[in-house]
Design a protein that fits this description.
This protein folds into 3 domains: 2-75, DNA polymerase, domain 1 (Orthogonal Bundle), CATH 1.10.150; 106-289, Rossmann fold (3-Layer(aba) Sandwich), CATH 3.40.50; 292-364, Orthogonal Bundle (Arc Repressor Mutant, subunit A), CATH 1.10.10. Helices cover 45% and strands 13% of the residues. It has 18 helices and 12 strands. The protein has helices spanning 2-13, 19-29, 32-37, 40-44, 51-59, 62-75, 90-93, 126-138, 154-164, 186-192, 212-223, 237-247, 265-272, 282-289, 291-297, 310-316, 327-334, 338-350; strands spanning 79-82, 101-106, 115-119, 145-148, 169-172, 196-200, 226-229, 251-254, 277-278, 324-326, 354-357, 361-364. It has a 9-stranded mixed sheet, with helices on both faces. Helix 1 (2-13) packs across helix 6.
Length: 365
């Protein structure tokens, strides 16, 4: 187990190998260990790999640092999750640039049915903090997991409110698990471990450098069904996260603010440019995400002897072993117009054959 882990960690350390190329190497070679054991001539045939990168792979020097990290992992009971592992966040797994490996400290299931990200300015106003806490209080009945970045301001408010109201919450870090930044949130982080956890793609001894935060933001965006922006200036990390969430086809929401307020400009701008849906409370989120409809569908008995149309049969074939599929997968597989797909899905849903899930996903009942 430790031998395999050293190759997984080592893969993330090879100069010139990012998340996309790393996955390509694993696919071509057959696994992390196979990447390091591959012959030079075989590596040269892989598209997108350069001579310097090949030399770095064959050098094997990164494996020593990987061994050091394994000692830290075992000492602190950290769970390293490779992108092919069952416990790896499935929503994140479907993103092309998702991390090859994440380090997780906590007890919560990272694949909960409903996960909401909440982000905003570090300079949160009293209005923003109040909205954030009220919103999370309203999510208590939905059994939602809250994900944020454990920064000052709205992030901290979201985590703190989740702890207060008994919701699981995950903090995504821009550094290793050997430290907490900002240090003021150390006590909060410890409480989060009791009902949630901390996750990062960075190894120990990694500082919270500026370039790490956009990488942290993509994990927040990738782990969730919906991302909610509470307060943001027109430029800031919260809007970067929202843009990434949009690129991942996540549902993005924003609370509107007063015209002229600095920390309302970002939310108002995203709403105005149709990059976020305006919400005022949890009911708005619940309605748009279809959670009420999902609850109602669970009581509908599947019609066992129903005859399916040809189009319906094609759509039903796209469901995998986990009985789930996505709208993108249906479009690619069926080659049907979007309007026809939507009509078929609605009929199947009304008849209790499938249910709509957050994030444009569907599940067989």
């Amino acid at each position: 187990m430790a031998d395999q882990l050293r190759y997984k960690i080592g893969l993330t350390l090879i100069p010139g190998v990012g998340d996309v190329l790393g996955k390509k190497l694993v696919a071509y070679c057959g696994g992390p260990e196979a990447v390091f054991l591959e012959k030079r001539k075989s590596l040269e045939k892989i598209p997108g790999i350069g001579i310097q990168t090949i030399s770095s792979i064959l050098n094997h020097s990164v494996l020593q640092r990987a061994d050091e990290e394994i000692v830290f992992i075992e000492k602190n009971k950290i769970k390293p999750l490779f992108y092919l592992d069952k416990e790896y966040p499935k929503r994140l797994q479907h993103c092309a640039d998702s991390p090859l490996l994440v380090y997780y400290l906590g007890s919560a299931d990272l694949n909960q049915q409903r996960i909401v990200g909440i982000v905003g300015t570090r300079s949160a106003t009293d209005y923003g903090k109040k909205i954030c806490e009220q919103f999370i209080e309203g999510l208590m009945s939905e059994n939602v997991m809250i994900v944020s970045g454990l920064a000052y301001g709205i992030d901290s408010c979201a985590h703190r409110a989740a702890v207060k109201y008994g919701l699981e919450t995950i903090g995504v870090l821009a550094h290793g698990l050997d430290r907490i930044y900002p240090d003021l949130n150390r006590g909060l982080a410890e409480r989060m471990l009791e009902n949630g956890g901390l996750i990062t793609e960075f190894m120990s001894n990694t500082n919270p450098d500026r370039e790490n935060f956009p990488r942290r933001n993509r994990i927040v965006a990738g782990m969730v069904d919906a991302l909610v922006v509470v307060e943001s200036a027109k430029r800031g990390g919260a809007l970067i996260t929202a843009d990434i969430a949009n690129s991942y086809n996540r549902d993005v929401f924003a609370f509107p603010g007063r015209v002229g307020d600095m920390y309302s400009e970002g939310c108002n701008y995203f709403i105005r440019t149709n990059r976020a849906v305006l919400i005022e409370n949890v009911d708005d989120l619940r309605y748009i995400m279809g959670w009420d409809k999902l609850s109602n569908q669970q009581s509908i008995q599947t019609k066992l002897f129903r005859d399916f149309t040809e189009d319906e049969a094609i759509i039903l074939k796209t469901f995998g072993d986990d009985k789930e599929t996505t709208i993108d997968k249906i479009m690619i597989h069926s080659q049907m117009p979007v309007s026809k797909i939507a009509s078929c899905l609605l009929t199947l849903e009304f008849d209790g054959i499938i249910s709509a899930l957050p994030g444009k996903r569907y599940k067989l009942l």
